[in-house]
């Protein structure tokens, strides 16, 4: 019987994808335009850089959107493709592939074959001990690089290397790098896939998200035969034994799908939390069955299509559509809010004293309200700022800015505190029982850029009740 047409294995696709992700993650911290980064959450400067736009810490309303998009994306990915995140995106998986498949197998030949992940190297041999030591040293260097790369998303690389010249002045930063690197060494070299099985909580979450149409690596019992009973106990180890009960059974019991599994499970046992959807078992069975001219018994499909044989997998079902709608809504919301970024920040706090009142020589009554304005220039150059007071329509009289008298300069990145005094000589209200709270709007703007760099803030002006005004006349 002729062999089926040879196709590129999922493992090769994963290697390409891992390489792309690694290059992107290493490159992103270095990408900047006009001193603004593609992504940077700077704790030093209390700023978020996103898509080459800087946001102050007071503008971090974008972070919840990013976090919700991240988690909903992962959950939606799980509903659609099982633990595809674990097998294709998770750093733990990528690092294990780099260490086990690249360093130990391809470079040092410590492991004989990538297809056999169950058999550990014989460490009684001096040659293997030496290779293991070299592998750990190589991974130690890569661990420090990965840890540094993680920190570059919070500390710009140029600042990081400047701080590196005086590490004792930045013990928390470099302590974090050291701790992260040591954890990666222990995790990837010694803990291995046990992290996925026993430590990572995601494997427990996935079981709640799965449904009959979730795509995952599945063994086709209808074609291959039932290797395990309902109690997950192994019934057969040889093909001829299976065929006694199930003459049509095609599984050769070669166990290639078992030896290649990085989490050491037997995919023929059914759904297991340890499966990370790396699809190595699909590749293994495809190779073996291809030599017999038959399609793989282990496929990337759903229970709906393979086990229950109810028809084709339903990819765009209501649950998936809901995730897509939510992700689109969050993305649009984030874009709309980010497009309204203000080029200056202004907080207004009223002083504890409601007002001060004084009779003037000409018989008028002066009413003052004092405020504390906290202003920050988020542009990259020194600019001059001033304020206007906008009173409600229909209010008779006016409110003047008494202090400051003139515009003032604000340098970038520094919060400037200004005491602002508003005054009126007009009778703005007449209330016999209570002080009157008058809503006003403060317009703050940059001199020369009144139409571009401007913000509006709601505030109040307190006007005394009528008897207090009368006493001061």
Folded structure, characterized:
- The protein has 473 residues and is α+β, with helices and mostly antiparallel strands.
- The chain has two domains: 1-341, no CATH class; 344-471, Immunoglobulins (Immunoglobulin-like).
- The chain is 39% helix and 20% strand.
- The chain contains 15 helices and 16 strands.
- The chain has helices at residues 10-27, 62-81, 84-88, 91-107, 126-151, 157-164, 171-191, 194-199, 202-209, 221-224, 239-245, 256-259, 280-291, 318-339, 466-471; strands at 32-33, 36-37, 39-42, 47-50, 53-56, 216-219, 298-301, 344-350, 356-359, 365-377, 383-390, 400-403, 408-410, 415-424, 436-446, 454-463.
- α2 (62-81) packs antiparallel against α14 (318-339) and α5 crosses α7 (171-191).
- It is elongated and about 115 Å long.
- The N and C termini lie far apart (111 Å).
